[in-house]
Structure formats: structure tokens, C-alpha cells
Amino acid sequence: MAKSNSKAGSLKSVFALLLLFGPALILIFISTRGCEHKFKELDDYGAIPKFSFTDARGKVYTNESFKNQIVLYTTIQPSCPDSCGITIWHLDQLIYQTLRENKKRLHHVKLVSILTDGAGNPDKRIKDVEFMLKDRVEGFDPSIWLIVSGDAKALYNIKHNGQTLLQEDKKYFGGFGFQELMLLSDKSNHLRMVLPGKTESTIRTMRDHMALLEKEYDIKAFKLKKKSAKVD
Length: 232
What we know:
Blueprint: H1 11-31, E1 52-54, E2 60-62, E3 70-76, H2 88-101, E4 109-115, H3 126-136, E5 145-149, H4 152-156, E6 159-160, E7 163-164, E8 181-185, E9 191-196, H5 200-231
Parallel strand pairs: 3-4, 4-5
Antiparallel strand pairs: 1-2, 3-8, 6-7, 8-9
């Protein structure tokens, strides 16, 4: 979400604004590639909560594991692809395939899906889910798309202006809103974007926001290189 004079009043209004202004942000990205002074950075919603996840091979991941990496967090369920908190097909086609096809350039960008049982609880059937993804996702690479087990609620336990991502309602998948959300974390483990992952449009918007975050780091690196050149 582009910076403005004031923060959104609540997470609920943030979601509505993101969906409403997503296309505009995409236009900002396209029209300002060569106009550094017009570039708008994504808002910073602070550090994401501490977590501990484990993959199928027993490797443990914490916040420190993803230091200096851009990470897109989602949930995933053993019932996928038929019944999921997010749309696996579009997550694959719009985000995963982009990361796979540009693995060398985007080696620092990861897709991490936390396995839940559909009711918001941890699930350990990681190998079953990886088997499903290998069967349905072209070139599935577990080093790019990590499937992990652990307490997803710990990660999504984020509050902003009295609102929480851990909303419960029958309208949500499995009764828990967080199972439908994608979280974008920057290289400092700070939350930079939240969007639902139930539709093609919101996943496409998240992909473009990931590009905005990538450009933010490109600009900072360029400025640093330019500054160093002046010193030399």
C-alpha cells in the first residue's frame, strides 16, 4: 500500500483500501520505473511476530531464517486444491512461476505456506501436500515454495488500531479469516502488505506489490552505489 499522510484507521479498512486502490498502485509502478522521485514505497506495519516452523525434512525456520529475504506467507491445507483458504492455481501461476522462472535474480524471494487442518490448527501432513504440489505445479521446487508446519496463528497474530488478523466468522474458510490472507514481509521481517488470497485479482495485486518492494531495494542499492562512487 502506498504511503499517505495518515495510516488506515483499522485493519478492516486497510483491506478495503488495498482492494480498492490496488490497480492504481500497479499504474504507479509502471509509470514511475524511470522516475525515482515519484516512486511510492509500501507502508511498514512493523515487525511480524516471532514464529517457529518445521519442514518435511525436519529443518526449523524462524524469523531469523528469512533475514535479508522477501517472503510471502500463506496457509495451505491437505484438502487442497479442492478446498483451500487461498486459490492454489492462481498462487502457482501468478507468483510461484514468476519466482521459478527468475530463480537466479529472485533467489532472495520465498513463498512460505503454513499447513493447517482447515480449522486453523497445525497439521503435519507436509509430505502429502508436497506430493500434491509436485503433481499439479510445474517445476515444483521446495527451496522456493516452502511447505511448513507449526502454529500459523503465531505468525498471523498481528493487531493494528484495535483490529486483529485473527478474526473468526462463519464467512471465512474454516471459520478463521487468517487462513485466507497473504502476508508480505520485507528483508527486515516487517509486514509490508496484507491481502486475501481467494481471487485471481488479489493475488495478481500482491504480485505487483512484491515488485514494488523489490524496486524499493533496487533504488536503495542504486543510491548506495552512487554515493560510494562519489566518495571514491
